[in-house]
Design goal:
CATH superfamily: Gcn5-related N-acetyltransferase (GNAT)
Oligomer: single chain
Distance between the termini: 37 Å
CATH topology: Aminopeptidase
Strand content: 25-35%
CATH class: Alpha Beta
Largest sheet: 6 strands, mixed
Order of helices and strands: HEEHEHEHEEH
Radius of gyration: 15 Å
Structural class: alpha+beta
Number of helices: 5
Shape: globular
Number of strands: 6
């Protein structure tokens, strides 16, 4: 519960950073169904967690984060649509690589299917049986 509250606070700061920098520091895309928010995706500098766990190997990369799809809208392509729009954004900004991480088992299954095995597997990082995974992805290979 406390970890979830901390994550929400970090995501709120990321969203504020998007507004304050007009999308230059953090950049969000939001999926809507009418006036209802049904998904989000964001990019910004690689997180401290990613930098620490990769010995700063990914420090210069952009990180995709805050990928959420409302439960009622999962498994119908909303996440893929958000990713495709983000790839298009990356191409327009000449961003060639990004990283992505996850400590959530359900998300890890999706990322492994989409991106293959992670570049970093941090076994039991969160607790026994709860790994953390980090991927490095070339935009040109995903389009």
């Amino acid at each position: 519960m406390i970890l979830s509250l901390l994550i929400i606070k970090v995501k709120e700061k990321y969203l504020e950073s998007d507004f304050e920098s007009k999308g230059e520091k953090r950049y969000f895309l939001i999926a809507l169904d009418g006036d209802k928010i049904i998904g989000s995706i964001e990019y910004g500098p690689a997180s401290d967690l990613i930098c620490d766990c990769t010995n700063n190997t990914f420090k210069e990369l952009i990180e995709i984060g805050t990928v959420f799809v409302h439960l009622d809208y999962q498994r119908i392509g909303v996440g893929n649509l958000l990713f495709n729009k983000m790839y298009f954004t990356f191409q327009n900004k000449d961003i060639e690589e990004f990283c992505l991480d996850s400590g959530y088992i359900s998300a890890q299954k999706i990322w492994k299917k989409k991106f293959g095995e992670p570049d970093y597997l941090l076994k039991d990082y969160w607790d026994e049986g709860y790994d953390h995974m980090i991927w490095r992805i070339k935009v040109s290979e995903r389009v």
